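worker-03 picked up job from queue 'complexes'. Input manifest follows; two sequence lines, order preserved.
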Amino acid sequence: MKKIICLSLFLVAAINFSVAQSLQSPNGELQMNFSLEEEGTPVYKLSFKGNEVIKTSKLGLELKEEEDLLSNFSVEGTEESSFDNTWTPVWGESKEIRNNYNELEVNLVQEETGRNLIIRFRLFNEGLGFRYEFPEQKDLVYFVIEEERTQFAMTGDHTAFWIPGDYDSQEYDYTESKLSEIREKFDSAVQPNASQEQFSKTGVQTSLMMKTEDGLYINLHEAALVEYSLMNLNLDDENMIFESWLTPDAVGNKGYLQTPAVSPWRTIMVSDDARDILVSNMNLNLNEPNKLEDTSWIKPVKYMGVWWEMITGKSSWAYTDELASVKLGETDYSKTKPNGKHAANTEHVKEYIDFAAEHGFDAVLVEGWNEGWEDWFGQSKDYVFDFVTPYPDFDVEEIHEYAQSKGVKMIMHHETSGAIRNYERHLDTAYQFMNKYDYPAVKSGYVGDIIPRGEHHYGQWAINHYLYAVKKAADYKVMVNAHEAVRPTGLRRTYPNLIGNESARGTEFQAFGGSKPNHVTILPFTRLIGGPMDYTPGIFEMDISKLNPDNDSHVNSTIANQLALYVTMYSPLQMAADLPENYMKFPDAFQFIKDVALDWDKSIYLEAEPGDYITVARKEKGSSNWFVGNVNGNEARTSMIQFDFLEKEKNYIATVYSDAPDAHYKTNPQAYEIKKYRVNSKSELSQKSVPGGGYAISIMEADKSETKDLKKL
Amino acid sequence: MKKIICLSLFLVAAINFSVAQSLQSPNGELQMNFSLEEEGTPVYKLSFKGNEVIKTSKLGLELKEEEDLLSNFSVEGTEESSFDNTWTPVWGESKEIRNNYNELEVNLVQEETGRNLIIRFRLFNEGLGFRYEFPEQKDLVYFVIEEERTQFAMTGDHTAFWIPGDYDSQEYDYTESKLSEIREKFDSAVQPNASQEQFSKTGVQTSLMMKTEDGLYINLHEAALVEYSLMNLNLDDENMIFESWLTPDAVGNKGYLQTPAVSPWRTIMVSDDARDILVSNMNLNLNEPNKLEDTSWIKPVKYMGVWWEMITGKSSWAYTDELASVKLGETDYSKTKPNGKHAANTEHVKEYIDFAAEHGFDAVLVEGWNEGWEDWFGQSKDYVFDFVTPYPDFDVEEIHEYAQSKGVKMIMHHETSGAIRNYERHLDTAYQFMNKYDYPAVKSGYVGDIIPRGEHHYGQWAINHYLYAVKKAADYKVMVNAHEAVRPTGLRRTYPNLIGNESARGTEFQAFGGSKPNHVTILPFTRLIGGPMDYTPGIFEMDISKLNPDNDSHVNSTIANQLALYVTMYSPLQMAADLPENYMKFPDAFQFIKDVALDWDKSIYLEAEPGDYITVARKEKGSSNWFVGNVNGNEARTSMIQFDFLEKEKNYIATVYSDAPDAHYKTNPQAYEIKKYRVNSKSELSQKSVPGGGYAISIMEADKSETKDLKKL
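worker-03 finished. Artifact:
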């Protein structure tokens, strides 16, 4: 017996001593090390090509009314595995997605409490994902999270592209600064919003894009945010350590979990090539596979809308200016005086349907169609809309028939005004109304503070709601584009009817004072890491006072930049946001918007630098067409791109829509040039983009006979 | 011009000086005086038969972020009117109800803000009701209530029957004490509860019953609590002034209103005869008339239930003891080991159906029929029940067929566990399930803290929900009996499908340690002022250890007292709560429960003293039968009643179920006597009731031939 005991003790000792675990990425460039510090605190660190990228960082959670899950752990066991498969999304930047990682599962047991905690690490070539798992167990059944204490310890005072940490809004311009400068720049970074609440002068949101002095790109985000509260990051700017800062509920608790449960994945992307950050599908790959059996009804949408004229103030959502307030079902609109500025009226909508039909758009969105817009905002109003009662001048039947006769779909609008219970009470009838009148998609909005009061847009309560609305929409075969909701974290893999979110500072803010001209060179590195954005581009008239003399906003972009956005700001849902009359001033530029595809076989990021430029080429799904887009930042720049993505032996016409040489986002935004070229896989282009400018290229296969008179690139 | 100006000024002065307004009750016994104090503070006072009952008391509201509605008012105008009509309730204590009052409408304008406030007073013979009205106006559209400041200034240190003011529970024994003693007795009055929160050591709930040293009875309550938060009362025990104390929401606000809006009615009943308090229909009369077009499906219900055996701990709601927790839709109950104590199983339910059919009961309630009871409580669990998925041993189809074949209805049970959003998400499918399986009524429950967290059972948010559930139930022709919801305030007039509430300390607490023996002599003066109570009486086995050896609770009541409750504790929904085997031990006593009616042509309160005794006679609707009930308090007492309520020239058999002479709620609760008498309108009865005892009498018309051998009263 003695011999066996000795051997067992030795093995036990060996296991305890070799608690340190390491994990490599498939290509070996990334290495993650896990271990337990003294007091049994789990920590990890990450290195890239042999150099530390994330210093030793703690893991764990602080619980309410229970012993914390922070320390006193030992490793009960570990398991390594690898995964490599390819799957097909319903829609996306590419036809197929490879999911390849090495995984380490670490099983921890907490000595005194006997509780188990699993930390699962997945190391992809482009980055690390890890999450906490709380197995079903006797000693941990229901628990309340006081705070998650996941650290991301930076190796230096990196440059970051950040927006202020906030429980309710992401609609901020990005600030580019050193981490050490966040504190001093914080207050001026907080632009006003309908609903917002910051928590720390060094709090920031994810995804957070950073660049080190050594030219490494680091991106922090989360994937699969389900039944949990959103993770902001709080920076300890003495030690340059970020720590997770979850969103509280009305009573200050940060999460209610029931085992078995998992946290979302915390993700760290690392590369010395910025394009890898944009190319990565890690966020999607960390989500659960598609749960919808039938996805035949889910289709990308190119649309226009009765919307921009209200955003600019030219028209109104409201029907009348006579009412101090509205009580749905009691207020008799037929007795009020129309204000003459209500855009969502039958005749005007038909004009949009005509325009959409003429120019090959799939659909028309109409906002302001339903009773309630006179007092919808800023009153903490509970029963704010019923989502089914049109204004007197919006004939839903007539519009339905007209749209059908023209082969155009209608997009529904559900502004919830943050009144979540009211929306849920009406959700079934609202979706049934959509089915009845053939609205295949809805743009939902959550403008204003959340009701129930005390809850936040990014708390577990609201996050549960957003998914509830998407799942119920799927039951009705409805696609959802949720604005002001939580920024996406890859759930579109599981629920591909979630075709869009805004959840960042979109084009509308160009009419609310303007956004930074390089905003669109940052968004794909930050907001779009978790999913597409309904950025609603395509503004041709930059001087908003031309639409509404009382609004002196200026759209800080050139027309060429606006065209490029259809390629660079990936979304299966793309709006031509401006008014038909503004498109008709530049029908040749408008042609690009009409031609550009929405769904892709392949996407190739040709060049990218956060804050400066992004150039991407995408192949239209099931076609030989390609589209290229370049968005440029604050400095004029010449882009040099190779067309080696084109199929060899094929001949193409490339139509290049670019800034005119004297264009400028501020002083001369509407100056553009259109040039047609003959191109093939050997072609190259050197193209100048102005500040806030860019270029867009449509590339279509053509016979040599069609291109022989064109200049060759 | 001068003359006219002088005259106008005089009139204006006259109007200003005669701001004091008085209002009389129809019989002239009550007089209300309204005026403005200095600084334009509205005040009122009330006198009865020339003596002050309510001293000068302030009115008004404190608003958040706006000038308060407390002072700086002047009277813009007043209007007096009278009302006298009779209406017919769908069910009730009487077939017809007279609504007779004099009304004073006072229109106030606040000088600086230009805002209008109306205070409407209605003076009935039995009391005063008044409410605030906020007319639609430009300067007051949306506002938030910080606190309502309605005072009720007492004329002395009255005796009160009170429960601690609380935002979440009314399930307390009443304390009888002087107002000055509330503070010292407060802490011991707070019995433990699943969800409770007090706010002041002199806070009490309504309705508050009081008796002055001069023998006047005063009752404070509210009527028509809709889209507002519940009013508790806080006592300034130096000055003996009660002030309204509303229930806050998660962020501390006490109400969100949009004009035009009204507050609930604040009611003050006054009489020198305690019976007038019980007879009064003022609370109902202050509510809006019936809104349901078709009420043919609304019927009183006499029922039994698979319930008391779980309350006593003999059986369990839960199916298995194996699970630490349940995830609905994931947990596979067929793989768990039944605990053998799950009462809601098909065979056992059929036994109840048999018993109900045999003994003429309308329906059987079953609790614990649905998945989720293993961890439903105390975990702040959101997705706690789905209300449609039965346990493996509850065959809903089979039970449906069996019940139908026996002519017995099933009563549904929806325990929400306070998870309001979860209930609302499932409400339609839950009611559809009821329709499908012919469940005409549901007992709903709200045990535990409300989710969304931070909200309270009596806040505006939850109150909005309770009414939403009742209105939606009416759409499905479902009757609702809501437990742990807000105590009723007469809404059954407007929604007669609200057939019951518990919302006070009911019979179940007899199995949780017992209630005071005189509890049932107080409840009709307090809890029942706003509506009937599903008190679930009829316990025949007082020694709970006989059902569950681990539960040594004792039911502090005699059998005769239990029988009387069917008459004294008015409810259109009456349960025979005990187990069939306990009824079969005393089939002769059980006969009264089988005979007693549920709906009434007339109710006559023969004698009443809060805390001591109540004796009431009621005439069965559409029948010549009468039923009499007496419940007695802590001291033995002999009741002397006249039968002059009977129709003259008719002959009746009166079956008197009374305490045996040696009965006692504690030591000999099951000792009763049954005596039959011949009675007519000239008869009298002198009947002794023991402590915690009482008597019940069924009186049925009979031929002289049937009664000739009976003793005559």
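worker-03 released lock.
The domain at 505-533+556-571+599-713 of chain B is CATH 2.60.40.1180 (Immunoglobulin-like).
The two ends of chain B are 82 Å apart (CA to CA).
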